[in-house]
Amino acid sequence: MTPQAKPESGGAAPSPPAASRFDLPETDAFSRFYWDAAAEGRLLLRRCRADGCGAAHHYPREFCPRCWSEDVGWEEASGRATLYTWSVVHRNDLPPFGERVPYVAAVVDLAEGPRMMTEVVDCPEAELRIGMPLRVRFRTEDETAPVIPAPTPPARGFSVPVFRPA
Predict the structure, then answer these.
(1) Contact criterion met (CB below 8 Å) for 22 and 95
(2) Which of 14, 38, 53, 98 is the most exposed place for a label (fewest CB within 10 A)?
(3) Residue in 13, 136, 149, 14 with CA at minimum distance from that of residue 79
(4) Which segments of the chain are extended strands (E)?
(5) Own/partner pairs for 45-52, CB < 8 Å, 24+ apart?
(6) pLDDT at 154
């Protein structure tokens, strides 16, 4: 049996762990460039540089999912997209999504070709239409911060691309 350390008298009690956030990305050395660009109000994708391919893809990977070449590079997307499909989420128990319901989870076709999972904001459900034109915006990590138009950089922290009607 191992003795447990007792808190020193007069010391503050340890604070409880912070609530988990499921809307913030976990970055690594590869994805950091993508998230840094998003924090600057820029949406990036990857494009294959192999002869005869040239396919753009999103989510960012270190290889081309079409031809498997590792000769891929970063490219700034135009920020234009069309709505491919969506679902209105009325219940989500993961923080902080429960505070956002209802929200529109969507798949959009980027102008450059790839499909991207995202959220549509600033649009009533009744106005959503397959093929409607959209523009990227960025939601900041700070829940009280507004969704800001690109390319205005957010004040701090992570920014996640979302889309609104063009």
Answers:
(1) yes
(2) 14
(3) 136
(4) 44-48, 56-57, 72-76, 80-89, 103-110, 115-120, 133-140, 148-149, 159-165
(5) 45/74, 45/75, 45/77, 45/110, 45/112, 45/114, 46/72, 46/73, 46/74, 46/75, 47/72, 47/73, 47/75, 47/112, 48/72, 49/73
(6) 43
* Alpha-carbon torsion, ordered 140, 141, 144, 147, to 10 deg: 20
Is residue 135 a contact partner of residue 151, using CB atoms and an 8 Å limit?
Answer: no
Tell which residue, 150, 157, 1, has the closest CA to residue 80: 150
DSSP H stretches of helix in 6-129: 32-39
How far apart, in whole angstroms, are the C-alpha atoms of residue 24 and residue 146? 16
The values of phi and psi at residue 155, to 5°, are -65, -40
Token pair, residue 55, equals 């396919």
pTM for the whole structure? 0.77
Q: Rounded to an integer, what is the distance from CA 60 to the centroid of its chain?
A: 12
Q: Is the pLDDT of residue 62 over 90?
A: yes
Phi, psi of 151 (to 5 degrees): -95, 25
